[in-house]
């Protein structure tokens, strides 16, 4: 059974498939850039402490910086 984990728990270089976004407050620009359930993403950079996380959407090679608080609301499974 696949393990669902929030994006803030992933390590740099991890590839994951987004399962769910637990908030309606995620900016619409994320959806426009292909960041939605079913998308495959790679963690590119994590700022220290509660800084942003840089995520690459594999399908269209879009880099998105998300807040750690937003990353906690997005679940994915490692691939």
TrEMBL record:
Keywords: Iron. InterPro entries: Fe-transptr_FeoA-like (IPR007167), FeoA (IPR052713), FeoA_core_dom (IPR038157), Transcriptional_repressor_C (IPR008988). Residues 5-78 form the Ferrous iron transporter FeoA-like domain. The keyword Transferase does not apply. Transmembrane segments: none annotated. SMART domains: FeoA. Signal peptide: none annotated. PANTHER family: FE(2+) TRANSPORT PROTEIN A, FERROUS IRON TRANSPORTER FEOA DOMAIN-CONTAINING PROTEIN. This is Ferrous iron transporter FeoA-like domain-containing protein.
């Amino acid at each position: 059974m696949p393990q669902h984990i929030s994006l803030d728990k992933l390590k740099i270089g991890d590839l994951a498939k987004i399962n769910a976004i637990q908030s309606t407050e995620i900016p619409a620009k994320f959806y426009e850039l292909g960041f939605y359930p079913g998308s495959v993403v790679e963690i590119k950079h994590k700022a220290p402490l509660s800084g942003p996380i840089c995520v690459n959407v594999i399908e269209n090679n879009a880099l998105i910086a998300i807040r750690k608080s937003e990353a906690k609301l997005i679940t994915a499974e490692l691939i």
